[in-house]
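Tutorial sheet, problem 5. The two components below are modelled jointly, 833 residues in total.
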Amino acid sequence: MTFTQRVRPIALRILFLLGVIGPGLITASAGNDAPGIATYSMAGSFYGYGLLWVLLWAAIGAVVLLEMAARMGATTGKGLTELIRERFGVRVTFLITLGILIANIGTTTAQFAGIAASAELFGLARHTMVPLVAVAVWFLVLRGSYERVERVLLFLTLYAVAYVITTFVVRPPWGEVLRQVMVPSVRLEADYLLALLATVGTTVTPWACAYMQASVADKGVTALEYPYTRFDVILGLMVSSLVAAFIVICAAVTLFANGIRVETATQAAQALAPLAGSWAKQLFGIGLFGASVLAASVLPLATTYAICEVFGWERGIDREVGEAPIFYGLYTLLIVASSIVVLIPGIPLFPLMWLSQVLNAVLLPSVMILMLRLANDPRIMKRQRNSPLTNVLATLLAVVITAATFALLVDAVL
Amino acid sequence: MTMYLSRILGKPVWDEQGERLGRCVDLLAAEGEVGFPHLRAIAVHDGQETRLIAAQAIAWLTPSIILNTSHPPTYEPRGDELWLARQVLDRQIVDTEGRRLVRANDVQITRVSTNGVRYHLAGVDVGTLGLLRRLGVEGLAQTLFRLLRRQPPKAIIPWRDVASLQADEPIRLRVSLEKISEFHPADIADIIEELDRPTGQALLQTLDTEIIADTIEEIEPELQVSILGTLPPEQAADVLEEMGPDVAADLLADLQPTQRAELLELMEAEDATDVQKLLTFPEDSAGGIMTTEFATIPMGLTVGKALEHLRQSQAAHEDEALFYIYVLDDKRRLQGVIALRELVLASPDVAVRDIMQTGVVTVDPLASQRDVARLVAKYNLLAVPVVDDAETMQGIVTVDDAIDAIIPTAWKKRLPRVF
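Model answer (structure tokens):
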């Protein structure tokens, strides 16, 4: 705090706003990590504008769920799993935590796949780059010198702006785009359902809800300041969903229209060709690298923290390894396991990135049921219970995801 | 005989005739006159409604719950009961011996047959073994430990060392809460930081104003503001008076202007003036981190008279550390300094002037915190006086406040506590 008293009134108000705003923007921009980029590129190149409506509804679902999580955090001051444990007991908590752990291993794997893919764009072997980055992440995060690196990485992810500019360069048929956003079109085939689930799973995840609620609870946002937080949630999601839509549109115009179905990062990079020309590969590679490393640095540690907290194990990077063996063990396991998967010979990186998100979507309904029960419980939420609209929208989302999951299962069996 | 709550909950309850009354959904316990709290009642749910059955009707709790009558007496709650499943199990409790916040994985109950009270709350299981028991794999874990030839870690906190915290209801078990008020304020601060806000506030409000002040001083700045904001204004003002003016000023500086003015208005005039003076300096300057409570003596005293003066002086009593005594002239200009140690060890007849140090290292109120820290480190000072342009002494910066500037903030603080 280097502000002097003279500027304090204004500065304080801005700081206050930023302080309250933080979590939403961070949670939202997490959607632009490696699996996000992969999913949106895939969606656009396989189905053109055909999945844009899913993006809209997934964003609405995300607003509803994250708002619910933030409200629970502000009202109770407790995290999501804390509430789940106090209300539903250890077994349910264990299952949910296990689900989130598996999904997050999937997402971390996707980040390392993003690192591998971007390395290969620059002609570097993934067998050297992935272990190198894994070790670097492990050390940087634990040794605390990560902060400076983080700024560089955040800067690199600004490349997403390139998609916004590209969209305006390629001039998509806006009327058609708008029609596809508004009018749902469902295809009952396995690939389409997978793409649909991946799109939902990239936009809203159980982990994001838990993270949201925890950061709100942690910041000590009260019911009084809550409107700021809600504004922040909606703003953050609007920004990230718009960027997502632009990625889909770019992929649709440049790839789908030319019959290219994205299977590799090189192909995905071509979506930026109208703007960057022959530099598209480099631009995409740098951005993908930044976004992947950023998420790969945050996710394993935050996941480990969360899990240790649920079960009351010693945790924190200020502890010695001997003091907190489970904490360090789990953290290391997350990074090692995720990077090893990527190194399996012949594993297709790009599909790995977006398929990991299907897991998140499939897990979502069970977490949503618990959230709905908590957010409607008068003993827990007092007057801050869900509005009927929130309940209807959330239930609708859960039903759609469950239906898509079942359709996919039926398709797989038959 | 020892049993666990997790093994009792959900079990069917049978009466003497072998009639099934329903399932056990909770146990109610309360503090007795002596010793551990005992079981008062068992909550039985028959599919439609929950009924409370008085504990004296219980013949057995394990392996099955069997009553000793077919007309069990209904229990009327008196309001002082603890509902074990709803209020203790899976909740955060304070381990008053270890001074830390833990989560109750299970509750240990012992069967005793003295004085007609037959079930006592023995302790709370906070260990991983308790968790595994809840997951139904305790046996498996025990076998694993045997195979590894290790002792399973036991983590049972005896009930007398447990303080349960419930924000939505009046805090119970005052005995154990009294123990919390005996903690070091830094320990209380740790617990409050880790608790969810409503519970943390409820806990804080049970403490004395003085302890609240000490505790808030130990809490992270961001949390200080929100915690102070939850106290009633009069109490908040009292708390601010108890704090060192430097801490109080920092805290007030972070408040909304209207709130700040209101609290300053409610504070006693003398304290409010001190704080207001500090508020005019930038937060990271010497003036912003100094305290205005420091011990002074006038010129021309002997050591004996000086010590006498200090005993009478309110400023000396308010000085947090009392490392140095500052010698001021009648215009409050700094003439010299003497360490309390020197003063105490010198013979009473010696004139302070002869043993005091002149040419004191001082800082300007607008000097940066970093510069103050460097000076303190360079001259190995425990406190450095802050002197303005007119050579009037304004306050002192103690070493702990100075070095905050050069100690990097732990990275950990940037990570949200996720769950």
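Marking note: Chain B has three domains: 2-157, 170-280, 296-403. Full credit if you identified this.
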